[in-house]
């Protein structure tokens, strides 16, 4: 009986112990959960431990606190920074505030504040008690447009075309103006250098030397000063010309006067003289059209091209394009003429010398003159031109009977012209001594057959 009572008593005691242990367990768990919960809640509106932004620890900082710290250290400081550019003797600068430069402070703080907040409570607790270092970096942005405008402004100030030296002749001596070097900003290179230098580092200003090219003039004063001697000249008379033809000769000659050819450069009569129009001062005068003398704008300028051509021959200047007339001209010998026609026939030559060539052209007392000047070294050689007419072709005359004209009366419809074959030579002398003779051209003037009407009408 007593044994049964003891067993019941033991069971009751054991149950009490278990209940006590369970209660203690529940209390411990409750305390632990509460601790975890309240610990996590403490960081609900602040940044977790060991979370850094740009190397600065923001553990436990609120959003407002973090934003203020970052603005103090980055936001305001970056606006004081400048980009300084030196271009030749000028200085240019632009501040980061003008570029609307800024850091993603608010966005980055939001990221740091949200870090770990979407995890479960245990994960959050672990991040608080055993944190893994986490770092965020600010994003830096700016507006490129003000920089592009600055580069354009620098370009406008710096870009200068080089100025060629010029030469003029007063009739007694040459006057040479100085050449001036130009400059050109390498805009693309400058832009790349600026953009590669701009960053979010809070440091000293950015200093850049603008890349600038020096532009050399095509014609220098030193080269033009080599022109000191007349090497050739030629003139032809146009005293029998009409006023219109004389005007055309004067206008064309004036457009050539003062032309300079540097070594290697070529000359085109048509390009230099230009189209023969009324607006440019040309008048109607006699020209050769379809083997006949007719009237047209610019009539007479073939005398200008022929006069210039003979000066070229006397100066040993290389002619690259030249065509003679249909029949011989009255103002120069056979084989010595050079016809021109806008858009069709040209007179061209090239400066093959090591020195510049200066062309002087003018008219006086109805004579057209061309003088060619260059360096005195070229004057050591002189040249004379000779011609050889080695064939003469007589034209035929075709007669057409005209019953409307009185018998014995004639009328020339087409004037005949004798044909010739002629060779032109250049005789070369050095210091007055004959050296050699060279063939320049072999021209053929085609004979022009004539046509004459004769009357056959009998008198009543």
From TrEMBL:
<keyword id="KW-1133">Transmembrane helix</keyword>
<protein>
    <submittedName>
        <fullName>Vancomycin B-type resistance protein VanW</fullName>
    </submittedName>
</protein>
<dbReference type="InterPro" id="IPR052913">
    <property type="entry name" value="Glycopeptide_resist_protein"/>
</dbReference>
<dbReference type="Pfam" id="PF04294">
    <property type="entry name" value="VanW"/>
</dbReference>
<keyword id="KW-0732">Signal</keyword>
<dbReference type="InterPro" id="IPR011098">
    <property type="entry name" value="G5_dom"/>
</dbReference>
<feature type="transmembrane region" description="Helical">
    <location>
        <begin position="20"/>
        <end position="38"/>
    </location>
</feature>
<dbReference type="Pfam" id="PF07501">
    <property type="entry name" value="G5"/>
</dbReference>
<feature type="domain" description="G5">
    <location>
        <begin position="379"/>
        <end position="458"/>
    </location>
</feature>
<keyword id="KW-0812">Transmembrane</keyword>
<dbReference type="InterPro" id="IPR007391">
    <property type="entry name" value="Vancomycin_resist_VanW"/>
</dbReference>
<dbReference type="InterPro" id="IPR022029">
    <property type="entry name" value="YoaR-like_PG-bd"/>
</dbReference>
<dbReference type="Pfam" id="PF12229">
    <property type="entry name" value="PG_binding_4"/>
</dbReference>
<keyword id="KW-0472">Membrane</keyword>
